[in-house]
Amino acid sequence: MSGRAQRLDLCPAAAAHLVEGRHIRSESVLHHGLQQSTSVRSRVDAEEVEAARLAASRIAGDGVIVRGRWMGRSLLLDVEVPADADARVGDIEAVGRQILSAIYDAVPAARQVTCRPRSSLGGSV
């Protein structure tokens, strides 16, 4: 093993057993792990989605669609932004970067934001 420290995430009960030198049964770790995973947020708050939508709308105007989901402890946001079919790619990318910055500022819990242009006809550009 290299000289790097390795991180092992265990539930508190399992960690206490390790510290005390007790044998831990895998069923116990699994049970406690499942117990903790249910306490992790599973629903995205409407306020977070609305804050992201408002931040993107200030830059891109009306028609922005935001969807959010939790992946473990990470909030992932998918943003669809209306774009003209004849818009230049460079312009769309510049607007996308501005939107990403605005959303990260407005929603501190967001860990990943994906911004996609959407044509005014409804499909992706």
Give an account of the 3D structure.
It contains four helices and three strands, in the order H-H-H-E-E-H-E. The chain has 125 residues and is α+β, with helices and mostly antiparallel strands. It folds into two domains: 1-39, no CATH class; 46-119, Cation efflux protein, cytoplasmic domain (Alpha-Beta Plaits, 2-Layer Sandwich).
Write a compact overview of the structure shown:
The protein is an alpha+beta fold and 125 residues long. It has four helices and three strands.
Poorly predicted runs are: 1-8, 21-39
Overall pLDDT metric: 76
Q: Which structural class should the secondary elements be placed in?
A: alpha+beta
Give the full name of the CATH homologous superfamily of the largest domain: Cation efflux protein, cytoplasmic domain
The description of the largest β-sheet is:
3 strands, mixed
If classified by CATH, what would the architecture of the largest domain be? 2-Layer Sandwich
Give the CATH class of the largest domain.
Alpha Beta
**Largest beta sheet: strand ordering:** 1-2-3
Shape: elongated
- Give the H and E element order: HHHEEHE
Helix % is: 40-55%
Offer a few descriptive terms.
125 residues; alpha+beta; elongated; disordered N terminus
